Amino acid sequence: MGTASDIASRHRFDARRTRQQLLRAVRQGLQSNGRTELTQVTVPMPPMDVLAWLDAQPQAERTYWSDRNGHHEMAAVGAADVQRSRAPVRRAALTQVLREHSFMEGGRYIGGLRFDSGRPAEARWQPFSTFRFVLPRLELHRTPEGTLLRCNLRPGHDDRSVVEALVHQVRLHPAASPPAALAAPVARTDAPDRPAWEATVREALEAIATTPLEKVVLARVATFTFAAPLAPFTLLRLLKPATPNCFHFAFQSAAGPAFVGASPELLFAKEGARVRSEAVAGTRPRADDPAADARLRRALLQSDKDRREHAFVRERIRRALAPLTQTLTVEEAPSELRLARKRHLQSAVKGSLQEGVDVWDLLGTLHPTPAVGGTPTEGALQHIRAMEPLDRGWYAGPVGWVQDDAAAFAVGIRSGLVDGADLSLFSGAGIVTGSDPAAEWQEIEHKISDFINVLGLDPRRS
Question: Based on C-alpha coordinates, what's the Rg of the chain?
């Protein structure tokens, strides 16, 4: 049951009138003879819980994105256009392949890419493709200026009956109710398990000592199995309030599985010629006691191992952006990125791009950062392919949106795949000289703790 303000808002909001207004605008847009460009029609909406709105929708194709400060969030259902590639794409050719696709002018496409675009996908990741970007049919946007519902139309391409059916089906103002708690999982499996993980870390340390490899990020997955299928957007509703200062996202295609996460890391944001990025690496937990929390903060800021790991990331971003920018400013002394349950070292990066540099240049150049891959990049990727017994899929890949000359992409970490009754939580640890295999296992347990603690999961259950 909604709050008194929710009820009052619904009383003032005439859903039937709004639906008819939207249908009239849709029909006018679709009747534009000879037009092939994108048409967008909008109707104002009352303030509401955007994520709860999405959770209540019956459609299978659903998407959610919220920026780090929470100033803009978007929930979307249906697809007016999909740009994707199912075939593996060599990293060197990724920029060109993306540029060859037909992203419609004026449309905001939302989606992501596999961490390793050249590696074939396991079955559970196949619906996400090598990369997949969707121009939603219906988008609910909340900004400081207000809330609106937008419908994207391609006159000359769209089936009127299909579009109108979706407009009739969408729940314009569902009752705001708190998300239901999840039942306890019935099993947990780890890939690799702890002995295999520690052996893999030792092999990585041997490679770092004997080859040009300086750092490699190794990932593992903890899969929790429940007695019944999970609702991915209910899961995100439980996760979001407990993970402030993060980018929140969820991608569910009509095929079923959903990729959900709360990432603390910006890959890049572009607005015209301006670009922002950041180096995020090095991790410590938070503590409830202020004195203990302060000690953990000092330990992170003074840690030689964490500062070296962070420096790999910062310098790789500097080298990647330098040829693409006219001016570039990199914060030399890392500061603290403070989250609800953990903290990281962070350095801000800002620049002005050279003429002609586009979103795909930035994406192909910056991904993967050493925070999720390693240094040097190609050597680290080869080691990951040889040593990791799992397909990362979209985990640690770029996720976000692109629209004309603007874009924002986060790194798809602190994330999980919801596939029926299975919740697979992916996370990684940066291995450098001085890394301890047992400590790196525990670091990953800290990283997946947002899901484990907030959702009441027992990390020891198996």
Answer: 22
Listed in sequence order, the residues at least 6 apart from 210 whose beta carbon sits closer than 8 Å to its beta carbon are none
Global model pTM greater than 0.85: yes
CB < 8 Å & 24+ apart, contacts of 92-95:
94/363, 94/364, 95/360, 95/361, 95/363, 95/364, 95/365
Q: CA 197 to CA 416: how far, in whole Å?
A: 19
Q: Which of 73, 215, 270, 447 is catalytic?
A: 215
342 flagged as catalytic: no
The tens digit of pLDDT for each residue in 429-439 reads 999 999 999 99
Which amino acid is present at 460? R
The H-or-E segment that residue 224 falls in is strand 215-225
Local structure of residue 221 (DSSP, 8 states): E
Domains with residue ranges and CATH for the chain: 4-169 (3.60.120.10), 187-234+265-454 (3.60.120.10)
Catalytic residue check, 240: no
Which amino acid is located at 283 in the chain?
A: T
Question: Residue 123 gets which letter from DSSP?
Answer: G
CA neighbor of 414 nearest in space, from 424, 427, 403, 405: 427
Annotated active-site residue in 73, 265, 309, 388:
265
